[in-house]
């Protein structure tokens, strides 16, 4: 009986060699640009104590309340696959006392995140983020600089997005605003969707972010948080806008932008792209002063963002970065078993000299091997046949003009070894 093929779990997928060049292009570019701005890479575990996200991101958020992959490991600990990486990075910052050096700590990461969301175009259950976190400053200039770096990355990839900005206030001004929201929502509860009815009680700010159509007329009439900021938050927001304008960065202010994670204070932002469809958020970020303390760490301010790599890839042309893909410098063609042994030795010697070298273990006629070499875009083919074997010589064929010549092993290595022609 034939077994049924086992395939990927819904919401996950394989990234095949054909598309990986786009991923490499983005990752390489991000590493280059982020390093230039002083961000260093950090790699945190893919799973963490569930409590890290419950406390850090917030138990009432959709991400923690509904979407986490949580399980008990063999020692009975509650573990969650990370749904985001800001809380883990701040945990690492505190755990390794990175604040001790004083000044700014700038970290970036690239890796998979996990959320059990409804499947949709641009939405995966295992998805990838490139993120950056600047810890140790509450200055609005670090926000502008981080956003500038992010926009530089996008524009270097030819991607355009719209920067949407808001301030969600702080522990001093937000509670009063939430009371006001609740009061407004109290006599409208019957018109709200089921989620918003619950949110009105548990997390009223999130009502502003509701996408359900029937809630929109209510949401549009709610008071704007930007009209209820304390003097310090209003001043911070104004200064951020000044720094952005100085850098020539355009933005739109969206007072309903509140984001789905509880740790934000003051600045919250997104970059959206009209080319993405319904899931149009390419980047989300903001300020999270106080997150470190919530996790039991030192007092620390922070600002950062995460970009959806899967979504960014969708915006690049299919062949972006393709040149960097596999293209052998030399293809070794052979005829017969004995020549095959020689072929292995030639490939080994060339690879040791830094040459990308291809050998087809299926063999086949010379014609079919040359066709394959052509398909792969090889620069040269080394041909080993009976005649060559007998004479201890090799034939080199230059693919661009089909010119062939006869060489010894030493000449072959000299001519084709890295640095040769
Ligand atoms: P987030 O808005 O939840 O923020 O996610 C950031 C980005 O990750 C989104 O804009 C989107 O591009 C991508 N993303 C999220 N969920 C999915 C999914 N299911 N499939 C594909 N892409 C997805 C955060 O995660 C915060 N940690 C950002 C941050 C960093 N804030 C401060 N520092």
Q: What percent of residues are in strands?
A: 15-25%
Q: Which structural class is indicated by helix and strand composition? A: alpha+beta
How many helices in DSSP terms? 15
Helix content: 25-40%
Topology, number of strands: 16
Heteromolecules bound: histidyl-adenosine monophosphate
- Strand order within the widest beta sheet: 1-5-6-11-10-9-7-8
Number of domains: 2
Overall CATH class of the largest domain: Alpha Beta
Q: What is the overall pLDDT average?
A: 93
Spatial extent as radius of gyration: 28 Å
CATH superfamily of the largest domain: Bira Bifunctional Protein, Domain 2
- Distance linking N and C termini: 55 Å
Which word captures the global form? elongated
Q: Extract low-pLDDT stretches.
A: none
Q: Kindly report the CATH topology of the largest domain.
A: BirA Bifunctional Protein, domain 2
Second rung of CATH, namely the architecture of the largest domain: 2-Layer Sandwich
Largest sheet report: 8 strands, mixed
What can you see in these coordinates?
This protein starts with 16 loop residues before the first helix and ends in a 5-residue tail after the last helix. By secondary structure, the protein is of the alpha+beta class. 37% of the residues lie in helices and 20% in strands. It has helices at residues 17-36, 50-58, 62-66, 86-95, 140-156, 174-186, 194-202, 216-221, 231-246, 291-294, 309-314, 337-352, 366-376, 386-391, 409-416, and strands spanning 40-41, 47-49, 70-72, 78-81, 105-114, 126-135, 162-167, 252-253, 265-272, 281-287, 302-308, 330-334, 357-359, 380-384, 394-398, 403-407. It is built from 15 helices and 16 strands. The protein has 2 domains: 20-173 and 229-314, 2-Layer Sandwich (BirA Bifunctional Protein, domain 2); 326-413, Rossmann fold (3-Layer(aba) Sandwich). The mean pLDDT is 93. Histidyl-adenosine monophosphate (HAM) binds at residues 84, 86, 115, 117, 123-124, 127, 129, 131, 133, 260-261, 281-286, 288, 304-306, 308, 310-311.
């Amino acid at each position: 009986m034939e077994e049924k093929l086992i395939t990927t779990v819904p919401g996950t997928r394989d990234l095949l060699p054909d598309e990986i060049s786009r991923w490499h292009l983005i990752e390489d570019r991000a590493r280059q640009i982020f390093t230039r701005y002083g961000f260093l890479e950090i790699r945190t575990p893919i799973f963490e104590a569930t409590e890290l996200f419950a406390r850090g991101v917030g138990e009432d958020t959709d991400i923690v309340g509904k979407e986490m992959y949580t399980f008990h490991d063999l020692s009975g600990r509650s573990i969650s696959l990370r749904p985001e990486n800001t809380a883990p990075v701040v945990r690492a910052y505190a755990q390794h006392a990175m604040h001790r050096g004083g000044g700014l700590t700038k970290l970036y990461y690239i890796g998979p995140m996990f959320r059990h969301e409804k499947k949709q175009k641009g939405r995966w259950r295992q998805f990838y983020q490139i993120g950056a976190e600047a810890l140790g400053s509450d200055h609005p200039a670090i926000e502008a600089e981080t956003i500038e770096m992010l926009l530089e990355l996008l524009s270097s990839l030819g991607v355009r997005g719209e920067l949407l900005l808001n301030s969600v206030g702080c522990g001093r001004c937000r509670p009063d605003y939430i009371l006001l929201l609740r009061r407004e929502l109290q006599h409208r509860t019957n018109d709200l969707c089921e989620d918003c009815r619950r949110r009105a009680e548990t997390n009223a700010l999130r009502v502003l972010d509701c996408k359900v159509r029937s809630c929109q007329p209510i949401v549009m009439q709610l008071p704007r948080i930007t009209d209820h900021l304390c003097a310090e938050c209003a001043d911070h927001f104004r200064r951020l806008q000044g720094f952005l304008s100085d850098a020539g960065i355009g933005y739109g202010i969206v007072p309903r932008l509140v984001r789905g994670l509880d740790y934000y204070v003051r600045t919250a932002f997104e970059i959206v792209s009209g080319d993405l469809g319904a899931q149009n958020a390419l980047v989300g970020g903001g300020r999270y002063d106080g997150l470190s303390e919530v996790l039991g760490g030192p007092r620390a301010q922070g600002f950062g963002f995460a970009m959806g790599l899967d979504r960014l890839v969708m915006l690049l042309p299919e062949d972006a970065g393709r040149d960097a893909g596999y293209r052998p410098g030399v293809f070794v063609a052979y005829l017969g078993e004995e020549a095959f042994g020689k072929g292995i030795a030639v490939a080994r010697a060339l690879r040791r000299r830094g040459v990308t070298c291809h050998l087809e273990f299926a063999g086949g006629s010379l014609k079919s091997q040359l066709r394959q070499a052509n398909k792969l875009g090889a620069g040269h083919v080394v041909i080993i046949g009976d005649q060559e074997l007998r004479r201890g010589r090799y034939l080199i064929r230059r693919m661009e003009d089909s010119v062939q010549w006869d060489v010894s092993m030493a000449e072959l290595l000299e001519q084709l070894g890295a640095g040769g022609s």
